[in-house]
Amino acid sequence: MKHLSLILERNRTALYPDVTGGTAAEGFPVKQKMKGKRVNLLGLLSFFVILGFLLIVYLGADILTGTLYFNYHHFVKKLQNSITPIEHSEHFMISAFLDHRVDRAIRVISIIRRDSLQPLYCIYHHYYSDYQVVTAEVEIHSDHFGFPFGAADVLCRGPSTQNASHVAVSTNTSISYSMDFLPVRNRVPTETFQYNFTICISSLFRNYNNALQFAQTMEMYKLVGVQHVVIYNTSCGPDLEKLLQHYQREGILEIVSWPVDQFLTPSAGWNSQKHPGDLHYYGQLVTLNECVYRHMYQSRYVLLNDIDEIIMPYKHANLPLMMQGLQQKQKNVGVFLIENHIFPKTQFEESHKYRRPEWRNIPGVNIMEHIYREPQRPHIINPTKLIVNPRYVLQTSVHSTLKSLGEVYRVPFNVCHIIHVRVALQGRLSKEQLLVDSRVWDFEDQLVPNVDRALQSAGFNLYDHSSFTQATVLE
Ligand SMILES: *[C@@H]1O[C@H](CO)[C@@H](O)[C@H](O)[C@H]1NC(C)=O
Ligand SMILES: *[C@@H]1O[C@H](CO)[C@@H](O)[C@H](O)[C@H]1NC(C)=O
Ligand SMILES: *[C@@H]1O[C@H](CO)[C@@H](O)[C@H](O)[C@H]1NC(C)=O
Ligand SMILES: *[C@@H]1O[C@H](CO)[C@@H](O)[C@H](O)[C@H]1NC(C)=O
């Protein structure tokens, strides 16, 4: 009970000065003074009375509901990690959800070392009630791109899983108190959602510092109706960090700490030959699945795309109108595929009307300058990203779901596609061979001032041009 002794320690230092009439500056001469002074016996007594009182005030509710031990555990877990090693194995558990669609089994999103499979057990219970132990079913997702570790679901099926509050995945059927239990989420399904549109952005890593593009993208998303953005953060650059903190303060952004590099050597790409490592792309598949389950009863729709991509409605003013239109015609669709289109960051719009001095010192790409889209390549199917109804998704990959309920619908390019400003894919094409697509300009009236405001709130000085460097513009 590390937590308890901590509180004891804190109370002791707070209380002794009162008890002895001394001051904090005297340090701890308490023991000496107490010797032979009966009045201090009274002091000691009142110390314990007050301590008892404070304990009841602090922890009373927890003691009454029997959640003290578990809150302690989760308190510590929160301070630690979203990634928990499974003892005596090379595997990891991430988070646990009740799956109302699959026999109310408990699904533990996990990272499994594919060549080291061993029997695993689920140990679950409802607060202080009896523990249940069942053999776990491990489903490794079919997309692992050849890396040794893969995203997986550990399924716990057994009596009264629907009542479980906590679960642990273990290599052993016996229970030990050092075991890490995860809280079971999604225990109560709802039909009303806190958000209509949530974006899940997987694993931000290394020194990613594309601040201007991020601010523009976030403001663009707000204008098309997104209420909530979730980013899994391994690490990032200093300017992006300022913006992350700004949007977190604002309330639209939720940061999930994702220190996967402390446990594994993540690959910086999807190709295990080119980018060797333990796990595909900083655990992208794990975070996407975690995010879908985390928002199953929080968000009507979840968008799964990268940090530099905007899922943009072209026929409707915003995402709510678009999804209403699509869903009216496609009643049983749970997965909408959105085509990705590349806007090379090396081709600039010629009037330079958006090359604003205010943005000169902000590192990153200015998406408003890049309105040239690469044409469709013959015989090549464009990769897609996803808008999903999370309640229809069992397992997802990056470009499509792996297991889902309902139907899958490929949204026509002219209704919606992704604006993805990045290095060219068809680098040989001249500007004349690219297509003009200036959809973001439609939002300029609000977008430009909103971006300025966000940058300033994040702590950037837009009007100091003394440190202007050409390099930031050319990036
Ligand atoms: C779940 O908990 C409720 C309330 O405590 C109880 O009535 C019910 O029997 C439990 N169900 C199972 C399957 O244990
Ligand atoms: C399970 O734990 C018990 C008690 O700690 C131990 O004796 C046993 O060897 C363990 N079994 C496995 C398979 O690790
Ligand atoms: C979500 O959409 C519904 C109906 O389309 C609307 O009533 C509700 O206010 C929206 N919720 C949010 C958080 O915007
Ligand atoms: C992102 O992660 C890095 C590395 O752990 C950390 O230094 C930074 O503060 C995190 N940013 C936010 C906004 O949480």
UniProtKB/TrEMBL annotation:
Protein family (similarity comment): Belongs to the glycosyltransferase 92 family.
PANTHER family linked: GLYCOSYLTRANSFERASE FAMILY 92 PROTEIN
UniProt cross-references to Pfam families, sorted A to Z: Glyco_transf_92
Subcellular location: Membrane
Lineage: Eukaryota, Metazoa, Chordata, Craniata, Vertebrata
UniProt membrane topology term: Single-pass membrane protein
Protein EC: 2.4.1.-
Keywords in alphabetical order: Glycosyltransferase, Membrane, Transferase, Transmembrane, Transmembrane helix
UniProt GO molecular function: glycosyltransferase activity
Superkingdom of the source species: Eukaryota
Name by which UniProt lists this protein: Glycosyltransferase family 92 protein
Residue spans crossing the bilayer: 41-61
GO cellular component: a single term: membrane
InterPro entries the UniProt entry points to: Glyco_transf_92
Chief localisation class: membrane
Top EC class for this record: transferase
Keyword Transmembrane helix recorded: yes
